[in-house]
Amino acid sequence: MTVAGALDRLVPDLTAGGLVTPVLEAWVGAPVRAERVAAALAPTTEVREWLRVGADAPIGCRRVRLLAGDVLLSEADNWFVPDRLTPAMRQMLAASDAPFGRVIAPLDPHRETLACIRLAGDPVLLIRALVIGGDGGPLALVEERYRQVIIASRTNTDGILRMISVLNQDIFKHT
């Protein structure tokens, strides 16, 4: 399968409105984890408009790398409204590497894709989406950049699963 063909199969799953982590886990056949990256991304006026908050409302920001094993699948910037999350969710986001979607799952979220752009090079795909709670209010705005390696599992018969298997075997040799 070509890169374009793999993207033709992946994009509908990523933009269907569900949470991304389970889609990635199904796609690569392995658990996906988030790794926080230090970032101070001030929300723009556009971000505040999408989240329907005023200029003085607090906005949280989280930059993460989503990985399967040690293989980087995507990077994402996430601006969220802390006041729309429970205290326990805010604490988990501040203190852990748990994926945002897993943390807010009790709020029955879904996503509305705002942009989906195929890119030349690596990353190969950019998705911007609004995360909406079960009550209909916006919880977060995310911008995700998907790496070329994510489609390796569909364009190469060995693909990413073999890379993850090798990495995991190497990790267990040293423990």
How would you characterize this protein structure?
- With 175 residues, this protein is α+β, with helices and mostly antiparallel strands.
- It has seven helices and six strands, in the order ααβαββααβββαα.
- The protein is globular, with a radius of gyration of 17 Å.
- 31% of the residues are buried.
- The C terminus is likely disordered.
**Major sheet, described briefly?**
6 strands, antiparallel
H/E element order: HHEHEEHHEEEHH
Please state the average pLDDT score: 87
How many domains is the backbone divided into? 1
CATH homology-level superfamily: Chorismate lyase-like
Distance between the termini: 37 Å
What's the Cα radius of gyration?
Answer: 17 Å
CATH topology: Chorismate lyase
Number of helices: 7
Structural class: alpha+beta
Annotation, overall tally of beta strands: 6
Determine the strand fraction and express it as a percent band.
25-35%
List segments where confidence is low: pLDDT < 50 over at least 5 consecutive residues.
156-160, 166-175
Shape: globular
Kindly state the percentage of residues in helix. Answer: 25-40%
Q: Any idea what the CATH architecture is?
A: 3-Layer(aba) Sandwich
Question: Which helices and strands appear, and what pairs or packs with what?
Answer:
Blueprint: H1 3-14, H2 20-28, E1 33-37, H3 45-51, E2 60-68, E3 71-80, H4 87-95, H5 100-104, E4 110-118, E5 125-132, E6 138-146, H6 152-155, H7 159-173
Antiparallel strand pairs: 1-2, 2-3, 3-6, 4-5, 5-6
In a nutshell, what does this entry contain?
35% of the residues lie in helices and 29% in strands.
